[in-house]
Automatic annotation (TrEMBL):
PANTHER family in the record: BLR1237 PROTEIN, TRICARBOXYLATE-BINDING PROTEIN
Organism in which the protein naturally occurs: Polaromonas jejuensis
Domain of life: Bacteria
Lineage: Bacteria, Pseudomonadati, Pseudomonadota, Betaproteobacteria, Burkholderiales
Similarity section: Belongs to the UPF0065 (bug) family.
Keywords for the protein's UniProt record, in alphabetical order: Signal
Keyword Signal belongs to the record: yes
Protein name: Bug family tripartite tricarboxylate transporter substrate binding protein
């Protein structure tokens, strides 16, 4: 009996000590819902590596890809709310996919909690420097002369980037053939090889190839020019007034994650994003940081969630 009591007391002490350990007491998994090499992967690994380096945490990026990024988000939504699983979400899978996919296992406004806004970026329309298209007007003229002959790639069906292409087709009153890929990198490789005419891409995905001179940016889709590509016109400037499509990236954890943990991760990430070297690294990818509280980021999510409901419904796009 005495031995049992000692064993019980020892176990209680061990459990109490474990609970008293400061967070994080073990590695944190950062789910990346797109393949290696794309914009989401690049930004996720920047955050994971810098948090590991500066905060002395162990943050491990884990690519869980498919279905326009919804598989990785669904896995995060199902994870235990312990603070050891988070995901890099963006407009694609957080505010567009719920209105596109008829069957989705998560509700981003209920099953996940917004932790930290990481970056935002316009979408860019690019082609190979060997392409016959020198301007966006060239694309429009070719598409009007031969409907569906011009092809454009995207990271996948149901992404913000895919819909940016569809919205542009409507605005320009043209027909182009969409070619979906499983992530940005394979789409970019096919553009460079000349297998598809254009790509609608996030700037972080395309920036390295733009800088190397292999890709020609024709236009950005945001309301104002990108500070990373100041010489590239906006779609709106080229005659399509009011055209404005951009995307954002941010960290989310499963709903029910303790507020103290959410606050700790938010503070560490925002401290990291405020550092000049991290800002430079993100800016080099064509993205920009924006300091937000978790509450402000949650509000942005909910606002965009409702906004894109109307955009998707107006487009008529659906995915089984």
């Amino acid at each position: 009996m005495f031995r049992k009591l000692l064993s019980f007391l020892f176990l209680a002490c061990v459990l109490t000590a474990a609970q008293a350990q400061p967070y994080p007491a073990k590695p944190i998994r950062l789910i990346v819902p797109f393949p290696p090499g794309g914009g989401t992967d690049i930004l996720s690994r920047l955050v994971a590596n810098k948090l590991t380096e500066v905060s002395k945490w162990t943050v491990v990026a884990d690519n869980r890809v498919g279905a326009g990024g919804t598989i990785g988000i669904a896995e995060a939504a199902r994870a235990a709310p312990s603070g050891y699983d988070m995901v890099m979400g963006q407009k694609d899978n957080m505010v567009v996919a719920p209105w596109l996919y008829k069957k989705l296992s998560y509700d981003p406004t209920k099953d996940l909690v917004a932790v930290a806004h990481v970056a935002y970026t316009p979408v860019v329309i690019v082609t190979s420097t060997n392409s016959r298209f020198k301007t966006l007007a060239d694309v429009v003229a070719a598409a009007k002369a031969a409907p569906d002959a011009v092809t454009y790639g995207s990271p996948g069906n149901g992404t913000t980037i895919h819909l940016a292409g569809e919205i542009f087709k409507t605005a320009a009153n043209i027909k182009m053939r969409h070619v979906p890929y499983k992530g940005s990198n394979p789409a970019l490789m096919d553009v460079l090889a000349g297998n598809v005419d254009l790509m609608v891409s996030s700037l972080p995905s395309a920036m390295a190839q733009i800088k190397s001179g292999k890709l020609r940016p024709l236009a950005v889709t945001s309301a104002s020019r990108s500070t990373s590509l100041p010489d590239v016109p906006t779609v709106a400037e080229l005659g399509y007034k009011g055209f404005d499509v951009s995307t954002w990236y941010g960290l989310f954890m499963p709903a029910g994650t303790p507020r103290e943990i959410v606050a700790t991760v938010h503070d560490e990430v925002n401290k990291l994003l405020a550092s000049p070297d991290m800002q430079a690294a993100i800016h080099a990818q064509g993205a920009e940081t924006q300091n937000m509280s978790s509450e402000q980021f949650s509000s942005l999510l909910k606002t965009d969630y409702q906004k894109w409901r109307g955009i998707v419904q107006a487009s008529g796009a659906t995915i089984e």
